[in-house]
Design brief:
elongated, 434 Repressor (Amino-terminal Domain), DNA-binding, homodimer
Chain lengths: 117, 117
DNA sequence: AAAATTGTGTAGTATATACGACACATGACA
DNA sequence: TGTCATGTGTCGTATATACTACACAATTTT
């Protein structure tokens, strides 16, 4: 569950192998947090950071914010806002898709993107 | 935004007109919170309660938990868990459906329910 | 008229969230 | 060999979350 920290650490260390700008200190500096805090996050000594910090961290490491938020046990507030506007509709849809294979979900995504409405 | 409290109050008072069991005290009793707390919630003096309490409250008042959670500014954790398992997929889908009319979303729900996969 | 029920004001609490500041030993490097 | 950067340990804090406990005046019920 505290998969978040170790994942961040792996990604950062991989990037660091050929770019010195990915030390704990430098990443923390760019992301706007204390190095000691990032260190603790990576070792799972503290809970994953806030949504905003997680997103900035994901961006700095070139990762997908939604994926990183998921690892942090969160769902981005903009997605939540969309759901909250039509709760019944989206609740049904999401529960419906719970067991559906990726393929089926992807097909739905494409269908909607191609605007069949 | 603190639409939540007034909505609860209206629903409860409506039910109360022909059922004495829907006083602040009795509802609070069944839901498992202090009457004073429910009173404050209804008047928007405090923030909406936790997810668990909101759901019990919705059930007691015969309302849809997802809708009540939405009014409380929340999205139920079980929906979030589904999203977090496949963040990219669901993030795409939901953002895709943001502007889609209810009709289109409903069609998708039915399509999936009828198991075209 | 007594008893019970109503809603609400006041005050306080326990736990979680989300960090910052500083110091320090170790290792790299020039 | 001195300087600089590295990661991390310790301690503290501000704010939010989610309530409880008690009391009390007003109304309702019996």
């Amino acid at each position: 569950m505290t998969h978040f920290g170790s994942t961040i650490r792996e990604i950062r260390e991989r990037l660091r192998r050929d770019d010195r700008r990915y030390s704990v200190r430098q990443v923390a500096g760019r992301v706007g947090i204390e190095p000691a805090y990032l260190s603790k996050i990576e070792r799972g000594e503290v809970a994953p950071p806030s949504e905003a910090t997680t997103v900035r961290l994901a961006q700095d490491l070139g990762e997908d914010p939604d994926v990183m938020l998921a690892l942090a046990g969160k769902v981005s507030t903009d997605l939540q806002a969309i759901i909250r506007k039509r709760p019944r509709l989206f609740a049904d849809l999401i529960r419906q898709l719970k067991e559906a294979p990726d393929k089926a979900v992807l097909r739905v995504v494409r269908e909607v993107r191609d605007g069949n409405w």
